[in-house]
């Protein structure tokens, strides 16, 4: 018998029926990421590279390109990330929340979004991002600075 069962006994362990449409968060995020990849493909992006490692927690990285714009969808240790930027920039990929702060000069989102929230933001922002990248109208230094400032705040280095 398990230690917790000995301690709490069967009377304290209530099992309830799980709804048929319920999926663990990881499965929900995985489905949302697949929906994102399908949406990107339908929007004209093509896969430039894809890596997968079952041995390393199922980590996956998919890089897609459309014209001068690149999108990177990454699964690392069960969490999904989306970054978008210029295809020719080595470190010029940024998450949709940062693009939203940059484009609309709105408040920065401190906590990482779900992949579903990032997808919805990208659906709104993509035309603006594509136009800005195509016309070289992006202040990359400001975007990098916003990312660095947010990272420092998340880690508690700034107030």
Plain-language structure description:
By secondary structure, the protein is α+β, with helices and mostly antiparallel strands. It has helices at residues 3-8, 25-42, 96-104, 115-134, 140-154, and strands spanning 46-53, 59-66, 69-76, 79-86, 93-94. The chain has one domain (22-154). Strands 1-2-3-4-5 form a five-stranded antiparallel β-sheet. Helix 3 packs across helix 4 (115-134). Mean pLDDT is 81; it is low at 1-16 and 18-24.
Keywords:
159 residues; alpha+beta; 5 strands; disordered N terminus
Which helices and strands appear, and what pairs or packs with what?
Blueprint: H1 3-8, H2 25-42, E1 46-53, E2 59-66, E3 69-76, E4 79-86, E5 93-94, H3 96-104, H4 115-134, H5 140-154
Antiparallel strand pairs: 1-2, 2-3, 3-4, 4-5
Helix pairs in contact: 3-4
**Average pLDDT for all residues:** 81
Number of helices: 5
| Oligomeric state | single chain
Strand content: 15-25%
SSE order in H/E notation? HHEEEEEHHH
- Unreliable segments of 5+ consecutive residues: 1-16, 18-24
Global morphology: globular
Structural class: alpha+beta
Spatial arrangement of strands, main beta sheet: 1-2-3-4-5
Largest sheet: 5 strands, antiparallel
- For the termini, the CA-CA separation is 49 Å
How many structural units, i.e. domains? 1
> Count the strands?
5
